[in-house]
Amino acid sequence: MSDMAASASITTPPHEVDECRGVLRVYSDGSIWRSSKPSFNVPVNDDGSILWKDIVFDPVHDLQLRLYKPASPSSPKLPVFYYIHGGGFCIGSRAWPNCQNYCFRLASNLQAVVISPDYRLAPENRLPAAIEDGFMAMKWLQAQALANNPDPWLTDVADFSKVFISGDSAGGTIAHNLAVQLGAGSLDLAPVLVRGYVLLAPFFGGTVLTRSEAEGPKDAFLNLELIDRFWRLSVPMEKRRITR
Q1: Which residue positions are annotated as catalytic (predicted)?
Q2: Portions of the chain given CATH number 3.40.50.1820
Q3: Dihedral through CA 133, CA 167, CA 93, CA 45, nearest 10?
Q4: Residue 36 annotated among the catalytic residues of the structure
């Protein structure tokens, strides 16, 4: 490299190469900017009927989950319902107001303890990091069930024999992979017993376009271009599908 080219490479500022929903920007030098503001600017509907708090479940990666339970539960023991947020593996948080409002409704309508875990986001942490974090969130629940001094805020009301795992979009994909990993009966989590999985529009893709992908409007909230952008950012190069 000539001195002039070397100087140019040093002084040329990095430029944006990818952007998602205004909350994530990826630059040519590999740096990442992620907004602290959510994509969905809606008010949090906290009327006090649901109690909640945050817990660190993975101190190594500083990952937290948010616990919810009815302030006046209908039964002494309540089922446990995991909700894993979506966001194409690249954006989203348990703390986003749309996620929190949904968990309020789940805890109230289901009369359940709701657990909403975060997971490491791409492109800083490409798959399978998010799936591994989903499993760690389940192991945290098992540790609480086995602990000599567990958190009574959770254990006094949670029925560890009635656990369900749910997620939407990328969260649905994580839930699917947990179902495959844990298998029938979830024996590796005993005494926690997973009774079922609820996959809400899981983030799956194939080598052949579906009709909705091929014919869907380009101005849709979640169009093919954005889906493929999430895919490109979250999946390691060697594991990306070759054709679309």
Answers
A1: 169
A2: 50-200
A3: -140
A4: no
